[in-house]
Amino acid sequence: MGESISDGTLAKFLKNVGDRVEIDEPIAQIETDKVTIDVTSPEAGVIQKFVAKEGDTVEPGNKVAIISKSGEGVEHVVPSEKSSEKVAPPAEDKKEEKAKPQVETTPVKEKPKGSSPPPPKRSPTELQLPPKERERRVPMTRLRKRVATRLKDSQNTFALLTTFNEVDMTNLMKLRSDYKDAFVEKHGVKLGFMSGFVKAAVSALQNQPIVNAVIDGDDIIYRDYIDISIAVGTPKGLVVPVIRNAEQMNFAEIEKTINTLAKKANDGSISIDEMAGGSFTISNGGVYGSLISTPIINPPQSAILGMHSIVSRPMVVGGNIVPRPMMYIALTYDHRLIDGREAVFFLRRIKDVVEDPRRLLLDV
Fold first, then answer.
1. How confident is the model over 147-160, as a mean pLDDT?
2. Full-model pTM
3. CB 3.0–4.6 Å: which of 30, 35, 45, 284 could bond 67 by disulfide?
């Protein structure tokens, strides 16, 4: 499972008793705090029985199933259980039939007494709760529990503060429109907005290295590398894969890395190593239509950048009111480490680079 994970929850069996399995074929899934791991069959054979149950907490080395190479002793296990289930109901029905006359006689006498008090009429101001039949109770997954714990720890530990700005996306959108076909033809991947914001974040982190640092006890750890985490929403929960050494990558390398990590995150094949570390996070709520938000820091990092949806709004340009594609951006940071001055300068650098990408070429 990895050094950082000691146990997991048996989420579900992918096979049934009596099914034939081959070597390395997945038979069950284990949910951990970070990823979902497949349990593969070490041998080819027929599943004889399950030792563990769905929902059990298991550790490395625990048995979850028994596989028979010959397939003997499999078929008769399930029918014995079914037969006992079939025999039991008739006996219960007979008992119920005998008991029914006795049960029905008592309510007849109590009906006048039971119908006299009118509780609903006496409580017009009381809160009317919906019946329990209209509610569903579903246990939280380990990933959702872990995300909830980390976010609450972030609120309890950090002095969270958020600063905002807005970005004119005209030039970045024009750059994408002008070179998207040539970019795909040469690099085999589409040119998106995320690579532009990653490059802008790298430039801003180099200008304000305190945003890339972290508090450790009474010390400040400055990182001389930039590993940017990209928040990805999946059906099972939020995962944050990491782009390693983003300061050494160009636009194409960033886009390829993001596409690879996003595919792995969505199909559940992403590894723990691909999510470990990270010195700064970018969260793009704009893909879901979010206009503005205050993102929460991903511990043990010190800041997170929130991107949002692009909306055409009237702006004053050269004394004239013209429509512009605008995006709100937000930076949530740990105020214990980062002052407002550094945070505002950081966000201003993001704005300047996105609005004029030529700054990256000239390093100005």
1. 89
2. 0.69
3. 45
Which of 24, 56, 93, 339 is the catalytic position?
Answer: 339
Q: Which of 7, 38, 335, 356 is catalytic?
A: 335
Q: What is the mean pLDDT of residues 28-48?
A: 82
Whether residue 165 contacts residue 329, with contact meaning beta carbons closer than 8 Å, is answered with yes
- pLDDT at 121 (0 to 100): 54
Collapsed DSSP state (helix, strand, coil) of residue 94: helix
Helix (H) or strand (E) holding 265: helix 251-267
Tokens of 211: 């945003």
How far is residue 38 from each of residues 14, 26, 63, 95, measured CA to CA in Å? 9, 6, 14, 47
Annotation says 339 is catalytic: yes
Q: What gap in Å lies between CA 153 and CA 5, rounded to an integer? A: 19
d(CA 292, CA 308): 6
Task: List the structure tokens of 103.
Answer: 């049960």
Task: Give which of 194, 191, 196 is closest to 178, Cα–Cα.
Answer: 191
The two tokens of residue 101 are 């006359």
User: How many angstroms separate the CA atoms of 338 and 349, rounded?
Assistant: 16
How does the average pLDDT of the chain come out, rounded? 84
| Cα 202 from Cα 209, distance rounded (Å) | 10
**Among 36, 30, 67, 72, which residue's Cα sits nearest to residue 50?**
67
